[in-house]
User: What shape does this take?
Amino acid sequence: MVSTIEACTQAENETRSDNIKWGIKQRASNGSLGFYRRKCYGYDKDEKGDLVINEEQAEVVRLIFHLYLKGKSVGGIINELEDRNIKSPTGKDTWPKRSVETMLSNEKYIGIAAVKIGGEEGQVYKLNNSHPAIISKEKFDAVQKDHLNRSNVEQTEDGPKRKKTKYSSKKRN
Assistant: This one.
């Protein structure tokens, strides 16, 4: 009897879990999922909960993209920000490397909100023009291309391999 009740309870929990996951996927696909409006550096929320540009922080975001395209490394950008006494997103004097790297690859800065549903193998949902862009798509794409060129790892048929030559900003035009 106890086994039967436990089995029914387990089945009910699985059904409830499936229904919750289905609801999250539906809100993600129709654009009503709250994660799309998640705030990041460069944005604030208005009274309706929508993302709006924080101009002071947006200038820092634009500076980071500009410095990267001018050949500065992530470490060089961090040094430049600290030399200019620009506080990190958490208000500290030092910028974590991960913050700058994430910023340079975050599509949110071109007006695209993305959310991944279902863990590592989950599906990514993107909502275009969900909020105002801080960076142009062209500049963002140029940074992504430059990042690939700078990487010392390339994808081959046999998997990832290190390049024989290293990137140097001194070789830039």
